[in-house]
Amino acid sequence: MRKKQILAIIGSTRANSSNLKVVQYLAALTKDLYDIAIFERISELPHFNPDSDNENPPCSVVEFRQLISKADGVLICTPEYIYSLPGSLKNAIEWCVSTAVFSQKPIGLITASASGKRAHEELQLIMKTVETNFTKETTLLISGIKGKFNDQGILSDTDTIDRLVRFSTAFGFLISD
User: In terms of domain of life, where is this protein from (predicted)?
Assistant: First the structure.
């Protein structure tokens, strides 16, 4: 049986961010089921400009859209900045609005931040608007993320680990449909 191809988009541009660590944990947890490719070039996408979103969009945007299109599912893991999504993540999504790359695409949404509540709500609204396919069980808010890791930077909070296991199971059901 072919492993499902998952594209993970990290909302943080920080090297070795907590969000990246969460996705790396999920990749290890589900390595027998999925190949999770982490998109690490979100900061390289140009600022969204509707005038450039025509028949010849920037090459980096075309490549990003192709990665989404080819994936069996998409995973977004993001922090909250000033009660909202990071600008780089919103910018990346804006480059996809004029296309159907997200339409009916199975998606998992994780907001991992100090609080994250407002960004999590905003992310769900935006992804609903671009017609992705997600359920309550394929969304996860992890508040107080920095405290969930031990001194070695390893996810150690048992409640968070249990929630990630349940999330990955629900996401698996979603992409299998």
Answer: Bacteria
Other CB atoms within a 10 A radius of the CB of residue 114 amount to 12
Which domains does the chain show, CATH number per domain? 4-176 (3.40.50.360)
The pairing of strands 34-39 and 73-78 is: unpaired
In total, the chain counts a number of residues equal to 177
Taking only the tens place, the pLDDT of each residue in 39-93 is 989 999 999 999 999 889 999 999 999 999 999 999 999 999 999 999 999 999 9
Amino acid present at 156: S
Per DSSP, the residues of 91-155 read HHHHTTTTSSTTTT-BEEEEEEESS-HHHHHHHHHHHHHTT-B--GGGEEEEESGGGGB-TTS-B
What is the radius of gyration, based on Cα positions, of the chain?
15
Three-state DSSP at 86 gives coil
Residue 10 three-state SS: strand
* DSSP 8-state class, residue 72: S
**Phi then psi for 6, rounded to 5 degrees?**
-115, 130
**SS3 at position 9:** strand
